[in-house]
Every structure is written in C-alpha cells, then in structure tokens.
Amino acid sequence: MASTNHVTTRWLGDMAFESNNPSGLNFRIDASPEDGGAGSGMRPKALMLSSLAGCSGLDIAMLIRKMKLEVSDFHIETVGSLSEDHPQTYEAVRVEFHFHGKNLAQAKLQRAVDLSVEKYCGVIAMFRKFAELDFQTVFHED
C-alpha cells in the first residue's frame, strides 16, 4: 500500500491557522494584512513553492552527499506566476538552483539536479500537471 501523509490544521481565530506535519513540527498559516490577516504566518500558495524547492533540495542534498561533492552553499530561488482569473493558480514556475564552491563538479551537480527534476521529486511531478516549469542551474565559483 502507498504511504500517506496526515496533517491537522486548526483555526486560531481571525485568518490564522496552525498546521502540523508528520515530522511532529507545527507551523502557522496566515493571510496578509491586505487580505484581512495579521501576516503572522506562511501563505498557502508560497508554501507550495517552498514544498517544490524543499522536495528537490532534499533529493539534491542526498545526491551531493552520495557523490561526495564539495559545495560550500546551495540555495534554490523559486518564482511562481499566478493566473489573473480566480481561483488564482500557478501558471508558470521558474526554479533556479544556485551552487557555490571552489571547484564545483558542474557536470555531476547538473546530473543531481536532472535526477531530482526528472525522476525523484514528487512535488515537481504534481506541479507539472498544472504549470509550465522552467529549471536553471547557476554555478558560482568562489
């Protein structure tokens, strides 16, 4: 049987919610002040972009360790473009993988990105069902 995730999201009043995670951690969700919230938590659509980056980032971090690659810093910039019509959904998402280091093994790092994007990351596979995705890898030699 396939594994499942179960989260509980509890209303805290006004526009705020607290959601748990199978890891046992909690986080807050809130609307922006323009939308009637206090801006005291994560925004749901932005969390989707974080999930995409986090899923792929975990794959790549595992591959960096497995391939014994030297990377001094790694970050992911994710920008989603929303539709104008309601309900607003992501139409296009750009994902940039940034690697920093002295002697980056660029071909191996690109292979790690490609494996995540094409094979391992389930969140990317879900996003492909509703948005155009653009992936770029940027190497910063220190």
UniProtKB/TrEMBL annotation:
Alphabetical list of Pfam families matching this protein: OsmC (PF02566)
Species annotation: Robiginitalea biformata (strain ATCC BAA-864 / DSM 15991 / KCTC 12146 / HTCC2501)
InterPro entries noted in UniProt: KH_dom-like_a/b, OsmC/Ohr_fam, OsmC/Ohrsf
Protein name as annotated: OsmC-like protein
PANTHER family: PROTEIN YHFA
